[in-house]
Each structure stands twice: as structure tokens, then as C-alpha cells.
Design brief:
This protein is mostly helical. Among the domains are: about 35-180, no CATH class; about 195-290. Helix 8 packs antiparallel against helix 9 (about 245-260). The chain has helices spanning about 15-30, 35-60, 65-100, 100-110, 115-125, 135-175, 180-225, 230-240, 245-260, 265-290, 295-325, 325-335, 340-350. The chain has 13 helices and no strands.
Length: about 350
């Protein structure tokens, strides 16, 4: 055969083509079910948080259905109380706040210097049509209410799934573990017990600190006579779930609203918020979480940015317990594949100690 006329042929078996097609189909199904998977993971987090209560009732000799019933009453009772008391108040204050946006703008600009970068920045930030004609935004708020109703339905679906996980989760777990090789089942049992403990403390701690933040903010705003205290307190509780950036997301709106009362009130609000933020980070959180969720600020920031970019707020909430569980996976599963002192040095670093030198 003459040089230059050679041909290179590739033969792809039908079996390989079918595997590629199956992988593409599986990826498409996972993409379509992404929202359902998020709800499933959120319900699993709630179920893990209530697992100690269910175990406590079992140790007392109560039937399992009684423990699940108590968990359900707490879940749905607190949710019904929350929605029954707060939602109407938040809706009314939200509509009132939107209606007062033009006067809010005028009051705020009156308290700023006549010229300068601060005033220019404020005027650009409040140059939207909502600050001159809040009518379209009111319609948008009503539209958000319809979307909010869908989120409420999803939230109750999460609670129902959480109860099913509580009632049948252990049976489902054993059923799935039976597929694994017998040599790995011991590691799975050890890892799952530690992981559920970490995740349970994370969820319970998050709920506690979020509620505490809302109560503190409400008291501060009421004492300082800042309007829309309930709305701003709920906003603080929700954004307190988001590490680092959440503090700025609920502090800036409250400070701006307080500025319409007086400059002194705005400064006091900012100082109180900052003081609580420091108290929460350096006293409350270590007491609540203990050493079960030791994550550096850089790890938290990078994890939250990546998860938020991919999956939004739900991703930010879900990513931290996943990251916090990595040391467990490393110690139980990855140790044979790492250097001999890697796990030990990581544990010393996480505990705030200097790694020992050879």
C-alpha cells in the first residue's frame, strides 16, 4: 500500500454505545430530579436531627409509633404555629414596607450629606422605579406569594418525608447495606453512626442559633422603635443559616430601615448586630456544636460559594454537614491510601494543635 493512503479505523462495539446512552439517560433523569433530590436531602437532615428523640422514647420502652407521633407533633405543631402567627404579620409588614418605599427613600436621603460618594451611591441604589411607583412591585409581591405557596407545600412535603425516614429509615438503611460486600459493612456501620451524630448536631445547632438570632433582633428593633421588626427578625433568622455572608444580608437592610428613624438608631442597630455576630461565632456556636463541626472560615467560605453557585440556598445549607463528615470518611475509608501520618496531622490541625514533627 502506498504511503499516505493508510487508513485508521475505530470499531466501537454496540455494548459500549448502549452504556454511553444509558449514562446519558441517567444523567438526564438526575438533572430532572434535582429539585426532588434537594427536598429528599433536606428531609433526611430533619430526620437525623430528630433521631436522638426517637431513640430516647425507645429506651424508655415506648412503642416506635409513639416516638414517631411525638416527633410529628413537634414538627407540624411548631410549623403550624410559625405559619399561623408569623406569615400574616410578615405579609402585612412586607406590603406596608413596599408601599412606603418612596417615603423611605426621601427620609433616607434627607439624613445623608447633600453631596459626596455616600449620597451618590444611595441615589444610584434607590433609583429603581419601585422607589417612585411601588404599584408594579406590589403586584410582584403578590406573584411571589403564589410562588411562596408552592414553597410552603414543598416544605410540608419535606416534613412528611422526614417522618417516613424516622419511621422506616433504619430498615431501608439495612436493606441497602445488604447489597455491599460483607467486608465493608462494618466500616459502613461505624461511619454512618458518626456521620448521623455530626449531621444531627449541625441541624439542631442551626435551628437553635437561627431562632436565637431572630429573638435577639426582634428585641433590639422593638426597643429602638425600628419599623417592620417582625419582618426584619424573620429575615435575620433565615439568613443566619447562611455562614459568613448571611450576616451582611440581614444587617444592611435593618441598618437602612433604622436610618429612617435616626442616624443614632442606625448606628446602634449596626453595633448590636455586630456584637451579636461576634458572640454567636466565638461563644454560642462553639458551645452548641462543640468539636463536632470543626471547619475553618476559609473552608466554610469556599464550600458555601461553590454550593451556592451550583444549587442555590439549599446547596449552601446542605454542603456544610457534608464537608464536616469528610474527616470521618478519611479516617475510616481513605486511611490505607494516604501517607501514614496524614490522618493524624489532619486531626491535630482540626483540633487547633501543631502537627508533631518527625
Amino acid at each position: 500500500m502506498a504511503k499516505g493512503s493508510e487508513r485508521l479505523e475505530f470499531t466501537v462495539p454496540w455494548r459500549t454505545l448502549l452504556k454511553i446512552a444509558a449514562a446519558c439517560l441517567l444523567g438526564y433523569v438526575v438533572w430532572q430530579l434535582a429539585r426532588f433530590v434537594e427536598l429528599l436531602l433536606l428531609s433526611l437532615l430533619i430526620a437525623i436531627a430528630f433521631r436522638p428523640l426517637l431513640r430516647w422514647t425507645t429506651r424508655r420502652g415506648w412503642p416506635k409509633w409513639a416516638g414517631v407521633l411525638i416527633c410529628g407533633l413537634i414538627l407540624f405543631g411548631s410549623t403550624a404555629l410559625l405559619f399561623g402567627v408569623l406569615v400574616p404579620t410578615i405579609s402585612n409588614q412586607g406590603m406596608e414596607f413596599v408601599k412606603k418605599l418612596p417615603s423611605f427613600r426621601e427620609n433616607l436621603l434627607q439624613r445623608l450629606p447633600v453631596s459626596g460618594q455616600v449620597r451618590d451611591l444611595a441615589e444610584r441604589a434607590m433609583s429603581g422605579s419601585a422607589f417612585s411607583d411601588p404599584g408594579p412591585m406590589l403586584k410582584q409581591v403578590v406573584a411571589w406569594g403564589g410562588a411562596g405557596l408552592q414553597r410552603v407545600v414543598e416544605f410540608f412535603l419535606v416534613l412528611i418525608l422526614a417522618l417516613y425516614f424516622l419511621a422506616e429509615g433504619e430498615g431501608m438503611y439495612r436493606w441497602l447495606v445488604a447489597f455491599l460486600p460483607e467486608a465493608h459493612r462494618g466500616k459502613i456501620a461505624e461511619a454512618s453512626e458518626e456521620i448521623t451524630e455530626v449531621v444531627g448536631h449541625y441541624v439542631a445547632g442551626n435551628i437553635f442559633t437561627s431562632v436565637l438570632c431572630s429573638v435577639f433582633v426582634f428585641i433590639v428593633l422593638k426597643v429602638l422603635h425600628v419599623p417592620n421588626a417582625v419582618l426584619l427578625a424573620v429575615l435575620a433568622g433565615v439568613f443566619d443559616l447562611l455562614p459568613i455572608i448571611g450576616f451582611f444580608m440581614f444587617t444592611i437592610p435593618a441598618t437602612l430601615v433604622a436610618l429612617t428613624v435616626s442616624l443614632k438608631t442606625a448606628v446602634l442597630v449596626a453595633v448590636c448586630y455586630a456584637a451579636y455576630h461576634l458572640l454567636e461565632n466565638y461563644f454560642i456556636v462553639p458551645k452548641v456544636y462543640g468539636n463536632r463541626l470543626r471547619l475553618s472560615e476559609l473552608t466554610v467560605l469556599l464550600s458555601c460559594l461553590a454550593a451556592g453557585w451550583v444549587a442555590g440556598v439549599a446547596g449552601v445549607i446542605l454542603i456544610l454537614p457534608v464537608v464536616a463528615c469528610y474527616p470521618i470518611v478519611e479516617r475510616i475509608w481513605l486511611r490505607p491510601y494516604l501517607e501514614g501520618d496524614t490522618v493524624k496531622q489532619h486531626e491535630e490541625i482540626d483540633a487547633g494543635e501543631k502537627p508533631e514533627k518527625e
